[in-house]
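Sequence only, no structure available. Ideas?
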Amino acid sequence: MEDLMPNSGRSDVRTVRHSQMLAILLVAGCRRVLAAERDGRGRKASDLAGMSNGKYVRIGGCVIARQRPGTAKGFVFLSLEDETGVANAIILPDLFQKNRLLVTSEQFLMVEGTLQNQDNVISVKAQRVMPLSITRAETSSHDFY
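Reply:
I predicted one. Tokens follow.
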């Protein structure tokens, strides 16, 4: 790494390495907290593939991506990460309007709705969205509106 940054001092390289390590520890810590708090959050992301289409489920996790494509007619797509993987949620336009601030600002969310498995693309069509109080640690998501 030092060879790739010839004008940089050793302290700069240490700072980059330190930042990378902190990011890894934060993710690992959030996953441990999520695992410990599993009881009230329903299904793990890894459970969804084995469940039947149309089943009512509850999922929860750290919001890692929010998407609201202009071509999606007001639908919002969330990716929620828990200790086992990533679960996708679809927020209908009317539910988004009722919960706009919650959906766009909360770090951790719990979503209840109907499981959809279409051509092995698994998502939860949300009927209810709630904040999930896990930690005050700073997280970030990739938000595209």
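Residues 1-9 have pLDDT under 50 and may be disordered.
Hope that gets you unstuck.
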